[in-house]
Predict the structure.
Amino acid sequence: MDIRFHNASAGDWRADCTLIFTTEGQRIQEVAPALCKAAPWLEITPALRDITGKKNEQVVLYGHPDLPLPRVLSSGLGKAASLNMQTLRDAVAKAVTACRARSYETLGIPVEVLDGLAETLGSSREELVKETVAAALLSLYRCDAYRSQKNGPTPGGKAAGKSAAAQKAGSTKGTVENAAGNDEDGTPPDPRWLALLFTEKTTPDAAHRAAREAEAEAAGIMLAQDLSNGPANYITPDVLAQRAKKLASSHGFSCTVFGPEEIRKRGMGAFWAVARGAREEPRFIVLEHCPKGKEKDAPLVLIGKGITFDTGGISLKPPAKMHEMKGDMGGAAAVLGFFAALGQMPGADELPRVVGLIPTTENMPGGNATRPGDVVVTHSGKTVEILNTDAEGRLILCDAISYAQKEYAPLAVVDIATLTGACVIALGDYGTGLFTGDKELRATLMDAAEKTGDLFWPLPLWDEYDSNLKSDVADMANIGPREGGSINAALFLRRFVEKGTRWAHLDIAGPGYVAKGSPLHPVPGGTGVGVRVFCELARHFSGKEKKKGAR
Ligand code: BES
Ligand code: MN
Ligand code: ZN
């Protein structure tokens, strides 16, 4: 769905359906005065009395079919006093999916409706435009690349028509689309465009930029969702590396990829301990955004866990829900999604130098797999006794953390990982555990998440628990007790953070992959959590680069 800008007096606006949002007791003349002036039938249409503004209410008002604005969909926001941005996002998402279900091709949102909400929400017009556009785009996400009959683009970015499944199998079957171009569930195609309806003669630059930022961020999130939802026989470590290379060539990033020999040669013994059991080759992906003149700047380093399938290894997981472990690369997906967003972000050159590091492999059992009790030498030189091969995320991350500090003098290092089941127990399906000893970085990340609507919560890095990681034979074990499992994992990672390095760890085991869909994430599975927060983080660091340079 394209995002457009209509600049005209309301009489010249046109769209199959105009979306408005009302709080309880509000009259539509207050909500959308210019619209009501241009469409006087609104005030006499019988359906008007059905509008109460109650949360989740949707009322469609119909005018004469030949009118330029023949329909208005009013969505209820509930009481003004309890209104928040998430309510608006959900209402926008539900309105847009309702329009798709009704096969409306062109949609409009009068910006005066958003302006009217700005004060209640304590937000600027630009923020409202951004959140509205992002919610509208995200609500239309679908994952039908692996169906034999479908309509949308595949995760590999191939043309619509033949499914990924049919392409991979080299099949000539399964290319028949039904007449309506619907997908298997019978969902009609997406609306062609959504127009922001301005009465101003030209779109103000700030509003235009906000909409473009929303498009960039939504694209990044949807890439991350595609990668998380993609089955592990398609989304392999090498496919992630190819995606990184493709992002680099389309957007001018640089990208280096190490294979198994390079990983071993560079002494990434912990990463290799996980990778060695798999037939699929591991990759270590380095992706860099470096605007001109910032080559010597200290970069922000983002590290994403890229386990494309986590069986647990020799410490095999139980079969129930094991298939969800195709989503154990949600951290990697967030980093790639962030770079995809950056690639089309207005003003990306004003953002700091950013390096993405993605250690990616399967975690498989097999004759060559690491055994519980094996001791390995990490990239840092520290040794680790691997007591449980299912605690593999920390093993691939610790080498990436060491690599980041050896190769760069980072502004900050932030890792993101579907790291521990314990974090889901602590914070539930939607909570991201935020671990950092850096108060400023904690506040920055909490503020970023508040802005994007992500549920982040700080968890402790208590020194008292560090001895949980004692090993009888090596510098440390890779697990502690079950109790405080997320903290133990975070403390393991902290052992690889050198003095003076600013570091934060995000445990997205819950929100990285969810079992239930929602208006903003209609397909159960990947949510792209982290993408938008990283965009905010990059903005936070813009202009704050220390001229320290790469080592
Ligand atoms: N990928 C899992 C964590 C996970 C669990 C993510 C559920 C999403 C949903 C991770 O590799 C893992 O297996 N962690 C173990 C660690 C334990 C062996 C110390 C866990 O959480 O059970
Ligand atoms: Mn595991
Ligand atoms: Zn895992």
